[in-house]
Design goal:
By secondary structure, the protein is an all-alpha fold. The chain is built from 6 helices and 2 strands.
């Protein structure tokens, strides 16, 4: 099964398969999977709210999961504090404030995936930039101030 999948892969796998050896290619308990991305139209239902990977996993390839989750938790807590008498309004504000940043991070993951799938000629090095520069992928998020400073009211 592994050799069949590898022959259909978009990248050269022969050196890797050669290192596995025939015994491993016949293994019945070999495990592999693909990285996938799920985009949800909503991160909440009623009083249940998803934060971080539970609602908007960006990708292992961007190095942004923890950053996006921390920003999400900050925004959710702050919007709920601002909307003490309106839970549904606070949850809606959380989604509104955060959606564009999450979408940009998810788009970067797809761009990196597409770049990694680009084929190179046999014996040619991978194109410059094919390994993500995680520092360059860091997206600034203009955090709304929730402490009473410019742009926000105290919780």
């Amino acid at each position: 099964m592994v050799s069949t999948v590898a022959l259909e892969a978009s990248t050269p796998c022969d050196p890797c398969l050669g290192r596995l050896g025939p015994r491993n290619l016949r293994a019945t308990d070999f495990h592999f999977y693909s990285l996938s991305q799920v985009r949800m139209s909503r991160w909440s239902r009623g009083r249940i709210v998803l934060v971080g990977d539970a609602g908007y996993a960006v990708s292992l390839g961007t190095g942004q999961a923890t950053s996006v989750a921390m920003v999400g938790a900050y925004v959710l807590a702050s919007e709920l504090a601002l909307h003490k008498e309106d839970l549904v309004g606070g949850i809606a504000a959380y989604e509104d404030v955060l959606r564009a940043n999450v979408t940009r991070n998810q788009d970067i993951a797809l761009e990196q995936s597409a770049q990694a799938d680009e084929r190179t000629g046999e014996g040619q090095p991978a194109p410059v930039g094919s390994i993500p520069d995680f520092g360059a992928l860091t997206l600034p998020f203009d955090l709304k101030r929730y402490d009473g400073g410019a742009g926000g009211a105290p919780p």
